[in-house]
Amino acid sequence: xxxxxxxxxxxxxxxxxxxxxxxxxxxxxxxxxxxxxxxxxxxxxxxxxxxxxxxxxxxxxxxxxxxxxxxxxxxxxxxxxxxxxxxxxxxxxxxxxxxxxxxxxxxxxxxxxxxxxxxxxxxxxxxxxxxxxxxxxxxxxxxxxxxxxxxxxxxxxxxxxxxxxxxxxxxxxxxxxxxxxxxxxxxxxxxxxxxxxxxxxxxxxxxxxxxxxxxxxxxxxxxxxxxxxxxxxxxxxxxxxxxxxxxxxxxxxxxxxxxxxxxx
Length: 264
Prior knowledge:
Helix content is 58%, strand content 6%. With 264 residues, it is mainly alpha-helical. Residues 7-45 form the BZIP domain. One of its GO terms (biological process) is cellular response to stress.
């Protein structure tokens, strides 16, 4: 009898152990599955974040390129403007608003030489009280010499800022011949001729794309980058938005490099 009871207790313990092990395995599998799902979720988030960062990086590169192009244009404009003024000063020509802005619509074409033209003063306030000149204009003369042979510095320093209700700025008009000459000089400095291969639609590579392709080359570690940079610098042409290299020229240069390594 005791043997039968002992055997029953042993069977019960075995059954309980089996149930406990089954529950443990079930909890373990569930926990592993939750961890795997979490890993997949994190990987998906990482892919999305990486994609967003790449897109943002591309947009920033495009912005930098457009800003560099704009900066280059502004520098060219500043140089052209400065050279034009220096030439006028050297020739003893009086500088006026007509000389600096020959196409300004504020001047009437019917105005003859020596005729004084009034334009609205951009410094006029909108209040009803009369305009009060600021201290920065206190040292300026209150009259303007009409002599056409006055040098540029004298003419500029003699601008008359009126304090009447109309508040106009007196400017001296030059002959149409000088205006045309200055305008032609300035416009010729902004002529931008693209390479005929660009206009023909030939495929090009930006400097970033050139660098990426060089890095992908199996012998990239053996390249002399100073020679490479000089070679691609000579190949580069202006596309209107930045320097580029024609893909055909790039491939030819890389093929030549590969042949040189093979012969070594």
